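Sequence decides. Consider this:

===
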Amino acid sequence: MPKKPVTGEDLRARLAANLRRLRRAAKLTQQEAADAAGLDLRHYWKVEHAENNVCISTIVKLANGFGVLPAMLLARPPRRRR
């Protein structure tokens, strides 16, 4: 069975979920996460809520801010355990 193609919307949702997970695990506010990445709070908020398309340089800034590889931000987030 062929895999469903990944869309930009899928990647925005993955990025948003991974950012929320990493930020919460680090016990950071959105302002602190934005500052660590060198981004404006409003821009960070829109990325974390999947409202903005994001360029590669922003993904790199976010990854550096959290100390992870850029690919990790676009990976399928782990499923929640119940």
